[in-house]
Amino acid sequence: MTLALPSTIQARRAEAATIFGSHGVPSRRVEEWKYSDLKVALGEAGIGTDQALWQVDALPEGVTQFDLSKSDAPDWVQKHFAVADRNIMGAASLTLSDGGVALLVAKGAQIAAPLKLAFNGTGHVRGLLVLEEGASLILVESVGIADFRNVGFEIVLGDGASLEHIRISPESGDAVLVEEASLRIAAGARYRAHFAGFGSKLSRMELEIALEGEGAEAHLSGVSVLDGKRHSDVTTHVIHRSGNTISTQLFKHVAGGNARAVYQGKVTVAKGANGSDSHQSAKALLLGENAEADLKPELEIFADDVKCAHGAAVGDLDAESLFYLRARGIPEAEARGLLLHAFLEDAVAEITSTDQRELVRTALLAALKSVA
Question: Are strands 63-67 and 162-169 parallel, antiparallel or unpaired?
Answer without folding.
Answer: unpaired
